[in-house]
Task: inverse folding
C-alpha cells in the first residue's frame, strides 16, 4: 500500500471513530464513513479524536491517571506503583489507546494538512490547524515518554515503531513546539463565517491561535525545565525563548476540557467510585501548619468549633498500633480533631471526615454509602486482635497514614478505612468539573524556578511565585491569601510560605501530645525529616523547596503526572517512604533497617513497557531498552531524573 492510500485508509478509520464522538453531527461523513475521502475527512476531525483520547475514558483513566499517576505522584493514599508494583494489562490498555486513538489520528491530521498546504487546497486557517496538531502530538508524546522513559516518534502510520530515549524525544518535542508557536504568531484563527463546525471540534480553545500559542510556549517551558538537571544549557535556551515568545498563561488561557457524566472519553477522569482517593501523607505533611491561617477563620460554622485543636498539638500517640518503619515525621500519631492552622486549599480539596453537611462531601461508593458515613472504629489490644482496646470516633478529624506493609499491626488497627480519612471533594468526582491539562499557576511556578536558576525571564522569582500561589487560591475559592503569603510558620517538613523567609527550622520542636495508652498529656520532641531521609538535601526551606511545595499543592488533584515528574527530577517535595513492617514483595531493597537513609530506589521511576510490545515487536523493544540505558524495570531512572 503506498503512502497516499495508507493515509486515506487511516482517515476512513478515524471517520468511523467519529461516529461515537463529536463527529456524529457531520452528515457528509456519517452517511458512509467507510467511503470517506480526502475532501470529507478534515484534519480537525482527527485532532478532535486525538484530544478526546487523551482525556481518557473511565477504563483507561482509572488505570493510568488514578492507579499510576496519582499513586506515584503521592496525590492520594495508595500502594501499587508506589510500592514497586504494576499491572501489564493496565499499561497495555493505556499504551494501545494512546497509540491507536491518540497519536495515530494526529499523525494523519498533520499529513493531511501538510498535503493540503502543499497542493494549494488549504483553507486560510489550515496552518493553525496543522500547528495545533503538532502541539497536541508533542503533549501526548511527552506523556508517554514520562511514563515509560522511552517513546516511539515514528510507527503510527502502519509500520512497526522504533523507540528513542527521553533525550532524543525531548529534543524533537521542543523543536516541534518552537516551530508551531512561530507559525501561530501570524496564522489566522478560523472564523464562524468560515465554518462554525471547525471551532466546535476544539473543546479547549476553539482553534484560537493566540491561546494555542500561549499553551505551546508554556508546554515548551515545562519540557525545557524537565532537562534542568541533566542538560541545563538546552533547558535554559529553550525556556528563555519560550518565555520571551509569550508563555504566560492567564486564567482564561487555562487548558481545560469540560467533563460529563457517562462512560466515554469526556467522563470525569476521577469519577470511578471504587477509587477512594484518600488524602496522602505527603499532601498532609505539606499543608499542616502551612500559611498561618487558622481553621477557626476558615470554618466559622458552629458545627466545627469544638473540634479545633491548639497550636503545636501533635495528637494522640499510639506507637504500638501504627507503623514506625517509615520516614513520615507524623508516624505513630492519631489526630483527634482539626488542626489549629492548615493551608486554606486543603479543606477545599479534601473534605473532613464525617462532615456530611458539606455539599462537597463524597458518599462514594453510592451502593455502600454507609462506608463513607461510618465513624466508629476499633483499636484492638496488642497481641489480642480479638479484644478491643477502645473505640475511636473519627468524625471531624484530620488524619492519614502511610501505605505499605503494616505487618501484624493491620490486625489490631481498624483505622485504615474509608471513613477515617479526608477524601477528595465531590466536585472532582462527579464529572461536573473541567479537567485541567495545564494551568496558569504552573506557568508562574516554572517562571519562578527559572528565575531562581538565574535564567533570563520577565518576572522576578518572588513575583512569579506569589502570582502562582494567588492563581491557585483563586481557582479553589480559598481566602486569606495575603496573610498566607506573609506567613513564616513551618509545615510538618520544615518549609514556610513567605518568600523572604528562608531560615531553616531547628532540627526539633517541642509539641504537645496525649499518650494513647495512659491518656496522660505530655511533650513530644518532634523531629523534621533529617537530610539522610530526603532526596533533596540542600535545604528544607530554600526558594526551590518553596516553589515545588506550592506547585505540588496547586497541581493536586489535576496534574499528578507533574507532581511525580518534579519528585523524580528534584526529589521535591518531601515524599515519605512506605511502611515496611514486613518486607515489600516488589521493593525488597527497602527494609526496616535502611528506610531512614533514602535513595531513589525507594520510589518508582517509570513503568515497564507493555508485554504486547515485547512480544509483538522484539526489535522495537530492544531499541527501547537500549535507549533507556538500563533494564526495563520500575526502578530504572529515566534520562532527566535524579540518578542518586
Result:
Amino acid at each position: 500500500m503506498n503512502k497516499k492510500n495508507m493515509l486515506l485508509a487511516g482517515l476512513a478509520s478515524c471517520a468511523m471513530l467519529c461516529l461515537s464522538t463529536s463527529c456524529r453531527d457531520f452528515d457528509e461523513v456519517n452517511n458512509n464513513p467507510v467511503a470517506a475521502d480526502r475532501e470529507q475527512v478534515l484534519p480537525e476531525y482527527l485532532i478532535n479524536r486525538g484530544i478526546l483520547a487523551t482525556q481518557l475514558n473511565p477504563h483507561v483513566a482509572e488505570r493510568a491517571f488514578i492507579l499510576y499517576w496519582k499513586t506515584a505522584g503521592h496525590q492520594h493514599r495508595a500502594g501499587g506503583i508506589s510500592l514497586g508494583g504494576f499491572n501489564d494489562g493496565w499499561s497495555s490498555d493505556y499504551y494501545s489507546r494512546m497509540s491507536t486513538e491518540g497519536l495515530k489520528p494526529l499523525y494523519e491530521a498533520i499529513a493531511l494538512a501538510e498535503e493540503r498546504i502543499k497542493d494549494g487546497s488549504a483553507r486560510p486557517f489550515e496552518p493553525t490547524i496543522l500547528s495545533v496538531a503538532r502541539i497536541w502530538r508533542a503533549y501526548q508524546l511527552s506523556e508517554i515518554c514520562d511514563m515509560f522513559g522511552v517513546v516511539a516518534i515514528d510507527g503510527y502510520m502502519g509500520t512497526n515503531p522504533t523507540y528513542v530515549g527521553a533525550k532524543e524525544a525531548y529534543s524533537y518535542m521542543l523543536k516541534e513546539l518552537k516551530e508551531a508557536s512561530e507559525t501561530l504568531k501570524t496564522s489566522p484563527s478560523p472564523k464562524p463565517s468560515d465554518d462554525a463546525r471547525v471551532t466546535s471540534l476544539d473543546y479547549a480553545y476553539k482553534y484560537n491561535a493566540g491561546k494555542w500559542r500561549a499553551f505551546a510556549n508554556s508546554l515548551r517551558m515545562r519540557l525545557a525545565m524537565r532537562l534542568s538537571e541533566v542538560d541545563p544549557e538546552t533547558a535554559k535556551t529553550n525556556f528563555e525563548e519560550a518565555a520571551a515568545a509569550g508563555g504566560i498563561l492567564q486564567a482564561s488561557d487555562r487548558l481545560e476540557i469540560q467533563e460529563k457524566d457517562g462512560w466515554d472519553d469526556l467522563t470525569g477522569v476521577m469519577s470511578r467510585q471504587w477509587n477512594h482517593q484518600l488524602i496522602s501523607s505527603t499532601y498532609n505533611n505539606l499543608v499542616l501548619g502551612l500559611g498561618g491561617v487558622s481553621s477557626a477563620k476558615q470554618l466559622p460554622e458552629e458545627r466545627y468549633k469544638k473540634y479545633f485543636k491548639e497550636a503545636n498539638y501533635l495528637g494522640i500517640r499510639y506507637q504500638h498500633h501504627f507503623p514506625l518503619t517509615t520516614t513520615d515525621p507524623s508516624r505513630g500519631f492519631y489526630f483527634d480533631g482539626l488542626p489549629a492552622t492548615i493551608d486554606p486549599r486543603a479543606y477545599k480539596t479534601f473534605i473532613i471526615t464525617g462532615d456530611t453537611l458539606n455539599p462537597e462531601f463524597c458518599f462514594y461508593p453510592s451502593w455502600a454509602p454507609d462506608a463513607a458515613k461510618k465513624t466508629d472504629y476499633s483499636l484492638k489490644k496488642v497481641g489480642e486482635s480479638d479484644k478491643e482496646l477502645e473505640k475511636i470516633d473519627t468524625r471531624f478529624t484530620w488524619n492519614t497514614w502511610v501505605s505499605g506493609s503494616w505487618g501484624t499491626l493491620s490486625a489490631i488497627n481498624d483505622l485504615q478505612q474509608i471513613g477515617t480519612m479526608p477524601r477528595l471533594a465531590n466536585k472532582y468526582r462527579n464529572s461536573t468539573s473541567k479537567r485541567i491539562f495545564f494551568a496558569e499557576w504552573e506557568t508562574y511556578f516554572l517562571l519562578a524556578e527559572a528565575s531562581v536558576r538565574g535564567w533570563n525571564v520577565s518576572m522576578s522569582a518572588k513575583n512569579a511565585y506569589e502570582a502562582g500561589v494567588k492563581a491557585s487560591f483563586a481557582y479553589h475559592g480559598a481566602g486569606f491569601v495575603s496573610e498566607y503569603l506573609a506567613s513564616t510558620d513551618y509545615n510538618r517538613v520544615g518549609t514556610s510560605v513567605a518568600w523572604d523567609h528562608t531560615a531553616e527550622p531547628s532540627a526539633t520542636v517541642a509539641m504537645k501530645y496525649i499518650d494513647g495508652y495512659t491518656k496522660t498529656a505530655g511533650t513530644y520532641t518532634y523531629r523534621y525529616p533529617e537530610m539522610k531521609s530526603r532526596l533533596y538535601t540542600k535545604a528544607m526551606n530554600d526558594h526551590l523547596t518553596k516553589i515545588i511545595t506550592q506547585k505540588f499543592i496547586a497541581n493536586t488533584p489535576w496534574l499528578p503526572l507533574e507532581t511525580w515528574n518534579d519528585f523524580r527530577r528534584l526529589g521535591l517535595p518531601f515524599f515519605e517512604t512506605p511502611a515496611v513492617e514486613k518486607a515489600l514483595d516488589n521493593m525488597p531493597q527497602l527494609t526496616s533497617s535502611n528506610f531512614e537513609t533514602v535513595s531513589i530506589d525507594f520510589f518508582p521511576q517509570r513503568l515497564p513497557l507493555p508485554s504486547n510490545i515485547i512480544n509483538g515487536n522484539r526489535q522495537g523493544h530492544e531499541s527501547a531498552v537500549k535507549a533507556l540505558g538500563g533494564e526495563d524495570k520500575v526502578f530504572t531512572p529515566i534520562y532527566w531524573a535524579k540518578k542518586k
Notes: The longest strand covers residues 384-393.
